[in-house]
Amino acid sequence: MATSDNEININFDSLLKLGYGIIDIRVKDYEITNDKAKYVIARIEGDRDTFYSDMLKFYLGKELVDKNVYELWVKILKHKINMSDDLKRDVSIKVAAIDYLENNYK
Predict the structure, then answer these.
(1) Is the overall model pTM greater than 0.85, yes or no?
(2) 76 is in which domain, residue-wise?
(3) What is the per-residue burial (b if ≥16 Cβ within 10 Å, else e) of 24-49?
(4) Which tens digit of pLDDT belongs to each residue from 12-66?
(5) How many domains does the chain divide into?
């Protein structure tokens, strides 16, 4: 799924319809794939329509009013990849989300 140059192409609607959501992205070497980033996908038990909004609220401690939560989530995932590259370790999605919100979100 992951592509080069931090490009993230995900059909969130299709994934959600199947009952799954991307909860994280790992920047770590695994022997099974050469992709730089690996998605962590989980089964969604709750409301699929508000999954990403609820997850952002959980990580950030406040509710965001954003018309395109998928786009915001992709930006946070890309930010996590960049932060992990810069720090030469896998940072947590919560740290990446907070850092993105404080430094890039308008």
Answers:
(1) no
(2) 4-103
(3) bbbbeeeeeeeebbbbeeeebeeebe
(4) 888 888 999 998 988 877 677 777 778 889 999 878 888 888 888 888 888 877 6
(5) 1
